[in-house]
Specification:
Radius of gyration: 23 Å
Strand order of the largest sheet: 1-2-4-3-5-8-6-7
Strand content: 15-25%
Structural class: alpha/beta
Largest sheet: 8 strands, mixed
Number of helices: 8
Helix content: 40-55%
Shape: elongated
Number of strands: 8
Length: 314
C-alpha cells in the first residue's frame, strides 16, 4: 500500500498534469528512471505533426521493453486534457476533443476578456480622459490589459486540467504496479507503450502502428482510466482473434490498423453502450482507490499471463 501511495503522489499530484511539452518531458524522464530500476529499458521517441498553421506539434511516445521480441504489448495514453469543468462527458477509448470542449475550457478567458473590455470602457477610459494617462486609472488599464494578454497567450491551447487521478493516471499506476509483479521471463514477453495524443487525435497510436512491421503480429491490450470503477469491462472488435476464458467481451473498437487487441477499462456501461469516465477532465477527478488499483492489477496480471501462455500452447 505504501508503494501505491508513493505512485499516486508522484503521478497524480507531482507529475499529474501532462499537457504541455515541458510537462510531458518531465514526466517521461521520471518514469523512465523508475522503470529502468524495475528491469525495463525505456525508449522515448519524438514525432512532429505538421499543422495547417505552418507550425509543428511535438508528440512523445515511451516504448518500454523490446517491442519486437515481446508477445504481448500493453498500451495506455499518458497525456492529460483540457478542463471542461464537468460540463461534458468523457467516454473510455474516445479522444472526445472537439471545438465545444475547447470553447468550454477557454470560457473563463473569454469572460476575463469581456470583463476587461467593460472595465476599460466604463471605468478606466472615462477617468483617463479627465485625469490623464498617468493616473491610477491609466496604470490600472495597463495592468489589466497586460494580464489579459498573458492569460490569452498562456492558455491559447485551452486551460489544462489540474486533477487527473482516474483519467488517466490510474492506468499508468496500474502498469507500474503490474511490472512490480512480473518475473524476468514475463518481462521479456510483455512490453508496454505510453502513448501521446490520447486526449486529442490519437497520434501516439499512429506512431505505434509505424514502429515496425512486426506490430501487426503482436497481441495488444489497451487500457483506459482503469480506476474508474470496481468491475473491469472488456471490449474487442469483431475481427480480433484474442480469446480469454470466463471473460465476457462487449463490442468495441479503436481507430487503429492493429488487428489483435482487446480493450480494458472499468465502470458502468450506459444505455448507448459507452463507458462514462466519472468526473474526467474536471477538478473532481481527485481520488484513486488503492484497493481498486490492486484488484485490477491482479486481474490484468492473470489476463497477461493467459495471453502469453496461449502462444506457448500453439
Amino acid at each position: 500500500m505504501e508503494i501505491l501511495k508513493d505512485l499516486v503522489l508522484r503521478y497524480c499530484v507531482i507529475f499529474g498534469k501532462r499537457f504541455s511539452t515541458k510537462q510531458k518531458i518531465a514526466f517521461l524522464r521520471v518514469i523512465s528512471k523508475e522503470l529502468i530500476q524495475l528491469g525495463y529499458m525505456v525508449d522515448a521517441k519524438l514525432a512532429k505533426l505538421k499543422l495547417a498553421t505552418r507550425r509543428y506539434e511535438n508528440y512523445y511516445n515511451a516504448y518500454i521493453g523490446d517491442l519486437n521480441k515481446a508477445e504481448l504489448i500493453i498500451c495506455t495514453y499518458y497525456d492529460t486534457g483540457v478542463n471542461n469543468f464537468n460540463f461534458q462527458k468523457k467516454y473510455a477509448f474516445s479522444p472526445q476533443f472537439s471545438k465545444l470542449s475547447y470553447f468550454i475550457s477557454i470560457a473563463p478567458i473569454i469572460i476575463l476578456f469581456i470583463a476587461s473590455l467593460i472595465l476599460n470602457y466604463f471605468v478606466f477610459i472615462p477617468d483617463i480622459r479627465t485625469q490623464g494617462f498617468f493616473s491610477i486609472s491609466g496604470v490600472g488599464s495597463i495592468i489589466s490589459t497586460v494580464l489579459l494578454f498573458f492569460f490569452v497567450f498562456k492558455f491559447k491551447s485551452g486551460i489544462p486540467n489540474q486533477k487527473n487521478f482516474v483519467c488517466n493516471s490510474s492506468s499508468i499506476i496500474t502498469i507500474i504496479n503490474l511490472i512490480n509483479k512480473l518475473n524476468k521471463k514475463e518481462k521479456k514477453k510483455i512490453a508496454f507503450v505510453l502513448c501521446d495524443g490520447g486526449n486529442s487525435n490519437q497520434y501516439g497510436l499512429k506512431m505505434l502502428e509505424s514502429y515496425s512491421n512486426q506490430m501487426k503480429n503482436k497481441k495488444f491490450i489497451f487500457i483506459d482510466s482503469i480506476g474508474n470503477g470496481n468491475e473491469l469491462i472488456f471490449l474487442k472488435p469483431q475481427q480480433s482473434n484474442l480469446q480469454l476464458e470466463n471473460i465476457t467481451f462487449y463490442s468495441g473498437k479503436m481507430e487503429t490498423q492493429l488487428p489483435n487487441y482487446i480493450m480494458i477499462t472499468s465502470g458502468d456501461i450506459d444505455e448507448n453502450g459507452k463507458i462514462v469516465i466519472k468526473s474526467a477532465h474536471s477538478a473532481k477527478d481527485n481520488y484513486l482507490s488503492d484497493k481498486v488499483i490492486n484488484k485490477h492489477t491482479q486481474s490484468l496480471l492473470e489476463i497477461s499471463r493467459a495471453l502469453i501462455s496461449s502462444n506457448n500452447d500453439k
